[in-house]
Amino acid sequence: MKKHIPFTIFIFFALVWLSIGCAQEGSNESEIQDTVELPDRESLIPADAVKMSPENDALPPELHSDEFEAPVPLPYPVNTRGAEDSAFILPDGQTLYVWFTPNNRMDVIEQAQDQVTGIYQFEKQDDGWSGAERIWLADPDEPQLDGCGFFQGNTVWICAVRQGLEGMHWMTSTFENGQWSKAALADFDPTYEVGELHISNDGNELYFHSDRAGGKGGLDIWVSHKVDGVWQEPENLEKVNSEYDEGWPALNPQEDELWISKNYGLWRSKKVDGVWQTPELIVSTLAGEASLDQDGNVYFTHHYYEDDQMIEADIYVAYRK
Questions:
Q1: Rg (CA), the chain
Q2: I need a surface site. Which of 40, 97, 249, 277 has the fewest CB within 10 A?
Q3: Which of 249, 231, 228 minimizes the C-alpha distance to 240?
Q4: Ordered domains of the chain (ranges, CATH)
Q5: Is 268 exposed, middle or buried (0-12, 13-18, 19+ CB in 10 A)?
Q6: Is the whole model's pTM more than 0.85, yes or no?
């Protein structure tokens, strides 16, 4: 379903599909039982891990638009010496979700079992961001990998690996009574080959990337419309796509901008007379997976490389002027 993907999480998933996808069945209880003593997420960061910054970055993000301030990394505790990826900002700009692993060089089975790798929540404060709070969508003592978090209202969609399920699956969870429910399978037709996604505010448009047949080449952006509660056959966004990979779609809250990752940069398509237009480059290099708040500020992942090896990854933001 995915190829030529520079972002770490799907490298993990591709291997884990083969490793733990057919493991024993897990619990069927709907609520998560937090009964184990969990390690601190930073305790598993290797002692020799280097904290990167714009000052020692050979390929910092480069802005190609005068609509934004120059991109800057978010401060600690959001960014650490570990790898932060797949940011999702709620429209009000007050809550941020980030995928984290302490060691991108760790064996994927270790990551699935380290009780640290996963999705974390941060709250905006006057002096920065709150401490990290782990989002548990399965029992902590079960091997698991959760990523691609898309949050809307009290619901989250994730791409997940679980015991008893072969391969990666889209799953959903709801937040009720101060707790996330155990994630359950989502309702996407498997023939649609849904990759990372964004769902419209009214819940009736599903944007996603896929290399499914009928596209222009590599990953393309597709949209499926919900009619009478059923997702319809996906349509290719022809003006948005090209022979290159286009992935990680994200709508702004006003839904007149569609952001994608392409050629290791962030691109934006605008909607004109109801039609998405050819994207324009906004941020390069090694920038991807945009998420926007209601003020148009763009949160994204930036990867640091040296000698073709990824050192770490951080969450950056480009503030709208």
A1: 19
A2: 40
A3: 249
A4: 8-25+56-318 (2.115.10)
A5: buried
A6: yes
Structure tokens at 266: 């962030």
**At 36, which amino acid appears?**
V
Q: How far is the C-alpha of 220 from the C-alpha of 211, rounded, in Å? A: 6
CA torsion sign, 208 to 158 to 319 to 95?
positive
Task: Quick: pLDDT tens for 232-291.
Answer: 999 999 999 999 999 999 999 999 999 999 999 999 999 999 999 999 999 999 999 999
| Distances 42 to 167, 187, 300 between C-alpha atoms, Å | 29, 35, 22
> Quick check: 317 and 298 in contact, CB under 8 A?
yes
Q: Give the C-alpha separation, 242 to 225, whole Å.
A: 22
- Cα separation, 281 vs 287, in Å, equals 11
